[in-house]
Structure formats: C-alpha cells, structure tokens
Amino acid sequence: MMQQYRSNSYLFGGNAPYVEEMYEAYLDNPGSVPENWRAYFDALQNVPAVDGSDNRDVAHAPVIESFAQRARANAFGNKASSTELAVARKQVHVQSLIAAYRNVGSRWADLDPLKRTERPKIPELEPAFYDLSESDMDISFSATNTYFSKAETMTLREIVQALRETYCGTIGAEIMHITDQVEKRWWQERLESVRAKPAFSPEKKKHILNRLTAAEGLERYLHTKYVGQKRFSLEGGESFIASMDEVVQSAGAQGVQEIVIGMAHRGRLNVLVNTLGKMPGDLFAEFEHKAPEDLPAGDVKYHQGFSSDVSTAGGPVHLSLAFNPSHLEIVNPVVEGSVKARMDRRGDAEGDQVLPVLVHGDAAFAGQGVVMETLALAQTRGYYTGGTLHIVINNQIGFTTSDPRDTRSTLYCSDVVKMIEAPVLHVNGDDPEAVVLATQLALEYRQQFNKDVVVDIVCFRKLGHNEQDTPALTQPLMYKSIAKHPGTRKLYGDKLVAQGVLAADGPDEMVKAFRAAMDEGRHTVDPVLTNFKSKYATDWSPYLGKKWTDSCDTALPVTEWKRLAEKVTTVPAGFKVHPLVEKVLADRAAMGRGEINVDWGMGEHMAFASLVASGYPVRLSGEDCGRGTFVHRHAVLHDQNREKFDEGIYIPLQNVGEGQAPFVVIDSILSEEAVLGFEYGYASADPQTLTIWEAQFGDFVNGAQVVIDQFIASGEVKWGRANGLTMMLPHGYEGQGPEHSSARLERFMQLAADNNMQVVQPTTASQIFHLLRRQQLRMFRKPLVIMTPKSLLRNKDATSPLNEFTKGEFKTVIAEQNPDIDAAKVKRVIACSGKVYYDLVKARGEKKDVAIIRVEQLYPFPHKAFAAEIKKYGAASDIVWCQDEPQNQGAWFFVQHYIHENMLDGQKLGYAGRPASASPAVGYAHLHQDQQKALLEQAFGKLKGFILTK
C-alpha cells in the first residue's frame, strides 16, 4: 500500500495539492499548522526563490521536492519521537484526503435524479488509499485548514463524514481549479461551514414548492389544452424555475436593479410566465393564433422576448428576456452587449447593478464555439460585464437521438468555463433546496468577485426534443427510468409533508390554486409592478414608426470644423508620437485648416468628433481598431518614450471639449461572432450611441454569419426590435487573394428586404463623414453595412475638399464628375459601386461618349436619384453595370432589376466584371491583373453575354 501511495498519491505525485493546502495555510497563518511542520516551513523560508529575490514566500516546487526527499529518507522530525513522527505522517495523509475530496469529490456526488448508473469508484476518496485504516478513524487530527467545525481538531471519522456530506451530496463543487487563493477559500468556507446543506425556514420551503408547482402546472396545463403544439417543455427540470426565482429575489436584495436573461427555447415559456410575469392569457392567445400580427414576419412564441419589473426585498428589479432564434447559444454575446450598454448608462463600472444570466442546454454549452468566444470576453476591458451567472438545464441527453457518449469529449458539459477559472456547482435537480442554495452561493460569489460562475442543474427531459417527438424510439432505457419518476414537485411535496411543513393535502391545494390562476389567465408572479418606470430606462419611441428617408442635414459649420480639427490633431506637451504618426497629425492639421484635401482617416475622425461634441457617444470595436488594420485611423496614440505598458496613451477623440459624450475604441480579442453579437446587443439597448464593429478584413465577417442572419437582418421584422449597429467591412479587389478581397457583398444584398438595413459603398472621405453622421442624426435606427475601402484610404483621388464637409449631405448616387462630357453625346452609361470607379475613370482616358455614375447606396436602392441620372443620357443606348466581384457575387444579381426598372425605353443592360467563380478572388497576382484588365475592356467594349432590354 505504501509503495502505491508513494508513487501515486498527492504527496509524491506531480500535482501535490496537499502540499499546497498545508503550505498555503502556513503562509496565511503560521499558527494554523502543527508545530513540527511550522518549524520545517520556517526553515524552508531560507531556500532561495526561483527569481533570486529575498521574498518570504518560496517556489512551491522545491518545497514539494524537499518533502519527498525527507520522507523517502525517513528524515522528517529528527528530534521527534516515533509516535510523533507517525502522527505527523498521518496528518499529511489526512490533508491529502481533504484535498482529494475538494478536487474530485464532485465525481462521486449524488447528481443524477434518474440514478441510471452506479457511482464510480474513486480510490483517492478512500482513507485506505492514504494508509489510513479503521484504527485511525477515532484519532483526532488538525482541522484548522477546514471550515467544518470551530474546533481545532476532529476525529478522522468526523472529517470523512463532513467531506462526504459537503462534496459528495446533491451538490458537487468544482472549485480547486481556481488559482486565486482568496476565492478558493471563500468557496471552501461557504460550502464546508454548512456541509453544502441549506437550512431554510418553513416559509422558504413552501415558496420553493410553490415555484415547482407553477413550473409543472404550466407545462401540464399547456399539454392538456394545446395537445401536440410545440412548446419545448421544461418537465423534468422544474427546479430551474425555483433557481430563477432565487436569482431575481436574491439579486434584488444584493443591489441588482436590472437582470438581462438569455436562453434558448427549452423552458422559455415557463420563464416568461413564472419568472417575468407574462400574463398566461397572452401566452394562450399565441397558442390560439390570436396574438397581434403587426410585424412583417413575426416569430414563434418560444423565441419571443419580454420585459417586466418585479418587486424584491432590495427594491424593483427590471427583467429583460432577450429575443433569441433557434441557434441556441448565439444569444450569449447579445445579452452581454446589452448588459454593457446598461452598465454604461448607469455609470456602473463593476456591474454591481446589472446582472447577465445565461441559461444553457448541456449539449449546446459543450458543443457551440460561441460559448468559448463569449467566455473569452469576460475579463477584457471593452467587454467586461461584472461576471455572468450561467445556469445549465442539464437534460443529460442533448438531442433526442444522440447517444450521451457522443455529446461531448469532456467529463462535464461545463468544462469549457474552466478556461476562465469559473467555479461550477453541479446540483441534483431532484433536490430543489440544493438548487436554490447553489444559486444563492453562485450569485453571492458573482456579486463579491465580479466573475462568471456556473450552476449546472442535472435533471432530465420528460418529453422529447419537442412535444411531437417520441424519444423512446432511440432512448428506451432512459425513458423507462423517466416513466417511473414521480416528478420533482411530487417528491418535494411529500418531503415537506413528512417534515410537517405542510398538511397532507397541502401540495394538492397548491396545484388547485395554480390551475385556477391558469383558468383565469392571472399573473403567477407576485408582485409584478405595472406602473414602475426607471430613470435609466431607454426611450425608443422617438425612433419608432418613422418612414425611411435618405436625406439628412449632416454638414458641419466651418468654425466648428476647424475647432474640432485642432482638437483631434493636438497632443499633450511632452508626448512623443511616432515620426510616421507625427506626419499624419501634421497633414490632418493642414486638412483642418483647409490647406489640403481631407483624406479618409480625417473624414472619419471629424465625423466621430462632431458626434461626441454634440452629445452622441461613439463605440468602435474590432480586432485592430485603435490604429486601423490599414494604419489609417490612429485614434489611439502611443508615447514613444513611455516606460510602462499601461501609461503613455492619448486618445484625442476623448478630448474634444467639456461635456462631450464618451468615445470608446477597443482592440477586441480575435473573435468575430462573439464580438459582433456583443455590439449588436449593445446597440439594441442604446440608440443614442453610434455603435460600430469593424472587421479586420471584410471577409472575416463570415465567422459571424449567424449574428447577421438571425439578428441584424431579421430582428426588426421578427421581433420589432430596431437597431442602429454599424458594420465596417473592408472590401475591394487589390490582388490580396480569395480571403482578403471580398466582404461578401452579395450575402447582404440577398438579406436586404423590408427596408431592414442599409448597404453602402462610399468612395470619398466626405461620403464616409456624412454617412456616419447621418446614421446617428436621423431619427430612426437601421443596421448600416459599410463596404469600406483599402486602397482608397490613401488614394488622393478619394480625398475631398473642405467645402464638401461644411455643406451638403451623403449622396446615394454620385453623378458623372467630368464637366467636359456632354450628356447629349453619351452613348454608354457605366454604373458601378466602390473602388472600381477609379479604375474605370483611368481606363476611360479621353473618351467623351461614356458617362460613369456611382451607386453609393446599394440598399435601399436610391431609385429616384438613379433614375434622375439615367434621364440625363437620353441618347445612350447601353447601360453597363461594372463590378470588381465575380458575376455570381457582388451586387449584380440584385441591382440589375433595379437598374432595368429605371432605364429608358430601348436601352440595353449589360454586365462587365469577372466571370462567375466558386472563390471570391484569385490568389495569383498575374491572374488578378489579367482579370482586372479584361473587366475594364469589357466595360467599354461590345456588350456580350447576358443582355437585358427595356
């Protein structure tokens, strides 16, 4: 046994957590360890630290190795008697046992309500593994590094019993992966002091049963009244509603004033009625297809959001359930962004007043990448939301047909959260009191440490994936167990009757009372506040119900232009900018004075400066936003003489004037899906802020397509949710290959309908200036997709004179710019969008019979402006659409119908561009040049291929 112990135990093994426990206890309080160990630790303080410093603490590896060497030599306690030596050794063994329970006790916890498998054998949890026998069970050992008792010693029997109750009951805690010792000890104290068992009052127990009754009652009512209709039942996981009730009430008592909830469809209807207080009658109307149908598309009832205000011991709490499509975890970053906007509105830097709650399914939590991407945002500066409470409705099955062995490669569905060291409490759903206790502890941890935490409710799913499914087809064993299960409410009700908390008919009376409330369509949450209005609530009414308009006065008075230009080009005295940036600032100062034309970067800066000066916050995020991927922005300046990493930063746009609105620029983590979802969520909660996400290259947006499809493009027609998010997507064919050329313009054009978004491709500095200002100054909010350029950022032809900023507005169509071209003599009109315009102008040379017009706004298509340009050229026989992209991509398939609609009788429409391709662009430079030359020749040559006649 001792040989096995020496080769495998924590004492001589690689991780040695018992050494950590003993030594860390000594470092915290030398008097907390036995005297002989304290003397030894004192001596070890003289061991040099790894870094050569003279710190009191030392590297733990030498300490562990020293223990091993002395133990192997039987050298510990030279001055001690053999009895003392034996006791000391056994004390170490006891510490190893305690460490084992803290580390892996959750694997032996009683977590499965269905009890389908036997508990695994875990030798590390047996005293015999550490050479502790029955004869040692009544010996007293030091318990000063535990929280089971106020006594300094406990018998081994008492210690083992306390460990099993705490770490192997109906709560299985995973906390030892946390490296912060304060947090780890906090969890040990909270769990061990109560043996992971609650001591609720009779009234609290009745309330828990009431919530279980409501959860089960709603599902059974719907199952009876609306047979066969999909609702994604919560049956088998009713304790989740008790958990959500505790979240609301306990969070309110701890100062939380807003809770934003994201969850997929499992149990969503139950949350709507039994947590947020949606009137049951309104839900029934949706089942009966009587709900208002004032949206162009609408959505199914189990995707709907809702908001309400409820009363708690700490005051009113506003609850928001985010609208969510069927893509399950994709709502996670949207919720986080919404929370961040609410925090900013309140000035709540730590997130103490606003709480994000994300509800997961076990399979989705383990399987979907956006979970990891969102977790990676948790402690970053631009996306910090004060910690998220994660609740897993763990059905132990995932989808109906999946074999549990195939749902994940990790032991627990929650293992992904260990990447940010989030603690996890696994809890048996059949023990609702344990579920509520776990929720209390998780929320207390979040509020104290402002970090993520997980409550994994291990339960089951009584019905199939939906109510039309027959799960026994593929899961016969599991559903035999489920068929025998009486239900969590029944088990808990019987328990309370046995305890004398309720009379024998008490549980049934609760069922009858809830049924009566359902029949009458009354609230099941008490009390819901119907007239409460928070001063922090966002008023969207000024932006709703407005008709589309392209026009908006976005000109900036010349005096204000020059004032702001000076602000954004000035740095503090003694601040040393890089020589290249110094030249950029000098050039921009000249642009501000009107001495030279304004380039793209300055146009952007002046748009941002004018907005924040007028009280509109600006939030810009992406993977390289501070300087800009193409080093054109320089919004964040770095002192070249700085000596510390977190010093020597200056952001001119944060210093344009007293009382200005915030300007925030964030270099994000390398994520598209989570960051774009976050910014969509931010914009959904704050119409006042110009919220921008910029892709490093436009094609990177591919990684966030779900956010675009299911939120940005369709959120308004499905849910009536306006959103003013702006996306900047670098796009243009510069010979950089298939992955760095196209932002997939065609995908946005395909999604464009019902005036749901704006798709634009500006070509001058003044255009981006007016476009960004228009986005915020118009009194309605629509997503804006900007195909931003690359080469045009430094193309002098794309610069604009000062008067184009102090006058005018965004032009949806830009007319022919050559004054020498006589409209009456034009034989061909080339319409285009983006960078290719400059290529066309160069290729045209001295030709006077070809006019080139630019469509700057591709959707909504500017019919009036475009038709007005076409009418100028009555003698033209040909209209050609020219684009850089392959024929099956870009805007061609979508604009051809718009162009045809506005052509004059007898005119023919043709295409000039790259041939159709399976790839966005070629990867060889010479092929790119050949294609570019060919498309330009085609634009001016004879019409070929597809020709459409008016």
UniProtKB/TrEMBL annotation:
This is oxoglutarate dehydrogenase (succinyl-transferring). Coiled coil: none annotated. It comes from Roseateles violae. E1 component of the 2-oxoglutarate dehydrogenase (OGDH) complex which catalyzes the decarboxylation of 2-oxoglutarate, the first step in the conversion of 2-oxoglutarate to succinyl-CoA and CO(2). Belongs to the alpha-ketoglutarate dehydrogenase family. It comes from the Bacteria. CDD domains: TPP_E1_OGDC_like. Its cofactor is thiamine diphosphate. It holds the Pfam family E1_dh. Its EC number is 1.2.4.2. Gene3D superfamilies: 3.40.50.12470, 3.40.50.970, Multifunctional 2-oxoglutarate metabolism enzyme, C-terminal domain, TPP helical domain. The keyword Oxidoreductase applies. Residues 598-795 form the Transketolase-like pyrimidine-binding domain. GO terms for molecular function: oxoglutarate dehydrogenase (succinyl-transferring) activity. InterPro entries: 2-oxogl_dehyd_N (IPR032106), 2oxoglutarate_DH_E1 (IPR011603), DH_E1 (IPR001017), KGD_C_sf (IPR042179), ODO-1/KGD_C (IPR031717), THDP-binding (IPR029061), Transketolase-like_Pyr-bd (IPR005475). Keywords: Oxidoreductase, Thiamine pyrophosphate.
